[in-house]
């Protein structure tokens, strides 16, 4: 129910106001007569009062439902409507409640509840979609046993699926049929699912370690069956990994994945019946890139791992969302790393995860939508499916593992599920279980303080400073932690921060470490646990000033401020045995050059990158000991978004100009090296998405990109011609798309020809056409040419605003992922944004609210961008009947100036 104040504005729901439900639901028996225009839903529930709550009326949530009847114990009952809630007074302590409703799935453009996509029924019930199917206590702490009967026309809907196990199916009169499903486990309503349509399945039977057999199924449309092998293999690997690593077996006779092209999210972990965006299921080498293969593996793993961390144990309330999402992101990250054959591939995965955190979550922590990992309030919970809840939440779990050790963490997970199986619990319950399983750990000792990671928003900063004393042969590292104010939290208390550190000498050799007052000498990485606002750590027995390697492996989600010299960073880049800090040294050097270039741009025309940086990048590129995937990461410059976050006042065009100048300089200065890199890596043999082959393709693609960029400046025609030929001859989508990207991002005239050919080849492959749209909308802006192109793309016959994937491929690629094109001096980008947010809000508020966040950081902008952005946000906020989803985002943005 959406609460509004006297002025009609939405009222926030607060965590401190949580109260247990007044009624429990023990069993739910649902019968669906499926029809796109008028689906009939009969809902029979066995209910009872919660004796621990004062007697009060039953209030059931509903949304856009047509109510036909209400029966209590088989008799008509009086009821009333209060807004969208169905209210019934005078109920006995235990009773059967029967509710009959209808809904119109074909008109459900919000894609929440029951909807139709390409003549197939799907559901999406997280977080509050079940109330769009039937009246219910639609909250995660009400867990019940479900029996579901689906009835439909057999010719149109031959496949009928729901949660759990199929117990009965058969024919009905007039060409109809039915299927009855029983879920043997209690679940909250958000995990309910049904699917009905013309689908085919890839099937695989597997035997678990306990000897039990399970049927795995991946359902897709008939023409897509050849693209399901990788998803099935990922599912098998997920089942085996979770049982091996954490002792968590598959608990159902069958486990199903179903793919749909109309989906607001990436995927949904409904118990035993996962519903996926096609983007995270369909792949073959002709249509999917290496990144697609990697994402499918990760998302399939993520949703399967929810079978325990989210389904068997769920959230007490939505403020605890990170209980399941942060833990499960951590689990899917560990899964992907454990599947890597060597340490370098694991490091690449870790760096990729951290890059997402720093470019997306750190800005969120610094913006108007900043919220703790466990939020204190919300207006629309869908707005809090964020990188803070997911990725930062995963980092909080990772810190727990660091503090108790890998084996200790596994003991904690075992205790957590032993204690809470079948329950709806809190983040506190999870942290307590990990600590209780490891009573001698630093986590147990500091648990109340550690839990500030759940309650305090913002990204902590570590200001570190090192002093070497030659006389005492000691090195003292002083660290001061702070956290800036965030909305509703003006002051912060110190966090518990595990800080991984190593020491190198000037030539790059790792030094033994001995702390003052300790007799033991350690080698490699040492974990220090910071818990006070300021601390000093002294290392002894050092003959010369060391180069500190701080925050190895990104051991905590913090910003490290340490005044490294260029020489120290070059030492770390060339020698640090910790791959993350080796990569980070290169990022710091690139960022330093960018910031200096931005500051000097008005008067200084000298190159942005100095010779030492160019030489260091050449050494990385040519280093035979480094994997290609790692090289590609090191040679990728900090993004425009990440650079902008380091500035107090941002001129987006200046940032764009400087980064483009850096790219151009790398292209020309390393021209011969890029040629060598391409020739060394472009032939990877028969296609395989393994980390080594993927890394070589990534580096070859980067080389082509820089070679085409250099050719644009020199007028050379050889490499653009070779790139076009590579595009035509490629035996897999990764190589083909890398070549196309090289032509498009360099602005070469051959790009138009390649784009037309690409569309002609793949016009019937929706996910590939998404890439085609996205590449153009996200291309580097030259003279304001991208916005007119985006407007033309929206008129293309293949574009549909109602399909979230397609809307994201064009509008989000421009507004959210292309700052140099979006932030125009004439404000036309902001006008376009405001029009699209309003247009989308009338169709799909969740998607509109996501787009609205493109201007979260407007208050950092320089003029004239700042005033124009604020005006655009105010224009959206002034729209009558704006959804609560979008209203919450834009009003918080305006309040954050």
- Count of separate DSSP helical elements: 29
Average pLDDT confidence is 97
- Terminal CA distance reads 30 Å
Dominant shape? globular
> Compute the gyration radius: what is it?
28 Å
**Assembly state:** single chain
Helical proportion, percent range: 40-55%
Q: Mind describing the biggest β-sheet?
A: 9 strands, mixed
Beta strands, count: 32
Q: Give the percentage of residues in beta strands.
A: 15-25%
Low-confidence runs of at least 5 consecutive residues: none
Which structural class do you get from the secondary structure elements?
Answer: alpha+beta
Explain what this protein looks like in three dimensions.
The protein is of the alpha+beta class. The chain contains 29 helices and 32 strands. Strands 2, 3, 5, 6, 9, 12, 14, 15 and 16 form a nine-stranded mixed beta sheet that branches. α1 packs across α2 and α26 (828-841) packs parallel to α28. The chain is globular, with a radius of gyration of 28 Å.
Question: Secondary structure elements and their pairing?
Answer:
Layout: E1 13-14, E2 23-33, E3 39-49, E4 58-60, E5 66-72, E6 75-76, E7 80-82, E8 85-88, E9 94-103, E10 113-117, E11 120-124, E12 143-153, E13 159-162, E14 165-172, E15 176-182, E16 187-188, E17 194-197, E18 200-207, E19 213-220, H1 229-246, E20 254-260, E21 267-268, E22 273-277, H2 290-305, E23 314-315, H3 321-339, H4 343-365, E24 377-378, H5 387-404, H6 406-420, E25 424-425, H7 427-436, H8 442-445, H9 447-450, H10 452-455, E26 461-469, E27 474-482, E28 497-504, E29 526-530, E30 534-540, E31 547-550, E32 559-562, H11 566-575, H12 579-600, H13 611-622, H14 628-634, H15 640-645, H16 652-669, H17 671-681, H18 691-714, H19 718-729, H20 733-745, H21 750-762, H22 766-777, H23 786-794, H24 804-815, H25 819-822, H26 828-841, H27 845-852, H28 865-877, H29 884-895
Parallel strand pairs: 2-12, 19-20, 20-22, 23-25, 26-32
Antiparallel strand pairs: 1-24, 2-3, 3-9, 4-8, 5-6, 5-9, 7-8, 10-11, 12-15, 12-16, 13-17, 14-15, 18-19, 21-22, 26-27, 27-30, 28-29, 28-31
């Amino acid at each position: 129910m959406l609460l509004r104040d006297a002025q009609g504005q939405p009222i926030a729901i607060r965590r401190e106001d949580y109260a247990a439900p007044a009624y429990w639901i023990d069993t739910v028996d649902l019968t669906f007569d499926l029809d796109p225009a008028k689906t009939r839903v009969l809902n029979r529930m066995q209910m009872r009062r919660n004796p621990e709550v004062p007697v009060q009326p039953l209030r059931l949530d509903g949304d856009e439902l047509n109510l036909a009847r209400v029966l209590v114990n088989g008799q008509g009952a009086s009821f009333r409507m209060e807004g969208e809630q169905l209210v019934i007074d005078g109920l006995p302590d235990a009773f059967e409640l029967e509710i009959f409703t209808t809904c119109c799935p074909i008109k459900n453009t919000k894609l929440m509840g029951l909807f139709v996509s390409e003549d197939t029924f799907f559901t999406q019930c997280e977080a509050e979609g079940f109330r769009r199917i039937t009246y219910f206590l639609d909250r995660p702490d009400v867990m019940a046993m479900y029996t579901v009967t689906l009835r439909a026309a057999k010719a149109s809907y031959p496949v009928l699926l729901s949660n759990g196990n199929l117990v009965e199916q058969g024919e009905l009169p007039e060409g109809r049929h039915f299927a009855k499903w029983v879920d043997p486990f209690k679940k909250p309503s958000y995990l309910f699912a049904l699917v009905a349509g013309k689908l085919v399945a890839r099937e695989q039977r597997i035997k678990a370690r306990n000897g039990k057999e399970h049927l795995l199924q991946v359902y897709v449309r008939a023409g897509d069956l050849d693209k399901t092998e990788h998803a099935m293999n990922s599912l098998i690997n997920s089942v085996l990994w979770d049982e091996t690593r954490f002792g968590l077996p598959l608990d159902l006779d069958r486990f199903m994945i179903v793919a749909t092209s109309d989906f607001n999210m990436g995927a949904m972990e409904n118990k035993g019946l996962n519903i996926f965006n096609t983007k995270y299921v369909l792949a073959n080498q002709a249509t999917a890139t290496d990144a697609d293969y990697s994402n499918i593996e990760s998302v399939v793993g993520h949703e399967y791992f929810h079978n325990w961390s989210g389904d068997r144990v769920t959230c007490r309330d939505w403020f605890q969302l990170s209980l399941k999402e942060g833990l499960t992101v951590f689990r899917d990250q560990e899964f992907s790393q454990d599947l890597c054959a060597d340490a370098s591939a694991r490091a690449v995965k870790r760096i990729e995860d951290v890059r997402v955190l720093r470019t997306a979550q750190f800005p969120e922590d610094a913006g108007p939508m900043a919220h703790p990992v466990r939020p204190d309030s919300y207006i629309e919970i869908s707005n809090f499916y964020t990188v803070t809840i997911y990725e930062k939440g995963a980092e909080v779990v990772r810190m727990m593992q660091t503090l108790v050790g890998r084996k200790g963490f596994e003991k904690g997970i075992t205790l957590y599920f032993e204690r809470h199986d079948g329950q709806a619990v809190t983040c506190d319950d999870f942290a307590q279980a990990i600590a209780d399983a490891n009573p001698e750990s630093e986590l147990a000792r500091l648990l109340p303080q550690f839990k500030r990671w759940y309650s305090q928003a913002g990204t902590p900063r570590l200001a570190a400073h090192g002093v070497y004393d030659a006389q005492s042969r000691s090195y003292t590292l002083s660290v001061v932690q702070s956290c800036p104010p965030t909305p509703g939290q003006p002051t912060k208390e110190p966090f518990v921060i595990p800080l991984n550190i190593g020491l190198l000498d000037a030539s790059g050799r790792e030094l033994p470490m001995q702390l003052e007052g300790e007799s033991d000498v350690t080698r490699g990485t040492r974990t220090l646990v910071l818990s006070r606002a300021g601390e000093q750590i002294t290392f002894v027995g050092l003959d010369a000033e060391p180069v500190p390697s701080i925050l190895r492996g990104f051991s905590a989600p913090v910003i490290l401020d340490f005044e490294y010299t260029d020489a120290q960073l070059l030492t770390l880049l060339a020698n640090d045995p910790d791959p993350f800090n080796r990569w980070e040294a290169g990022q710091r050097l690139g960022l330093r050059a960018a910031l200096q270039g931005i500051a000097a741009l008005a008067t200084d025309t000298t190159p942005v990158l100095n010779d030492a940086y160019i030489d260091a990048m050449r050494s990385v590129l040519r280093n035979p000991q480094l994997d290609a995937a790692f090289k590609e990461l090191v040679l990728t410059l900090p993004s425009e978004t990440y650079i902008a976050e380091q500035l107090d006042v941002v001129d987006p065009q200046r940032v764009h100009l400087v980064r483009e100048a850096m790219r151009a300089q790398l292209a020309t200065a390393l021209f011969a090296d890029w040629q060598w890199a391409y020739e060394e890596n472009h032939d990877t043999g028969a296609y395989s998405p393994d980390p080594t082959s993927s890394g070589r393709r990534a580096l070859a693609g980067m080389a082509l990109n820089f070679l085409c960029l250099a050719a644009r400046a020199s007028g050379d025609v050889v490499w653009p011609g070779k790139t076009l030929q590579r595009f035509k001859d490629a035996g897999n989508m990764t190589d083909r798309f890398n070549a196309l990207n090289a032509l498009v991002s360099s602005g070469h005239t051959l790009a138009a020809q390649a784009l037309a050919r690409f569309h002609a080849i793949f016009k019937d492959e929706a996910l590939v056409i998404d890439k085609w749209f996205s590449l153009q909308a996200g291309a580097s802006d030259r003279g304001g040419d991208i916005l007119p192109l985006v407007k033309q793309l929206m008129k293309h016959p293949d574009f549909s605003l109602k399909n979230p994937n397609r809307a994201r491929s064009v509008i989000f690629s421009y507004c959210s992922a292309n700052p140099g094109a979006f932030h125009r001096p004439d404000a036309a980008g902001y006008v376009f944004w405001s029009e699209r947010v309003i247009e989308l809000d009338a169709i799909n508020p969740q998607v509109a609210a996501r787009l609205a966040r493109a201007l979260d950081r407007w208050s950092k902008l320089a003029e004239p961008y700042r005033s124009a952005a604020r005006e655009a946000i105010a224009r959206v906020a002034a729209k009558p009947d704006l959804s609560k989803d979008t209203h919450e985002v834009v009003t918080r943005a305006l309040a954050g100036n």
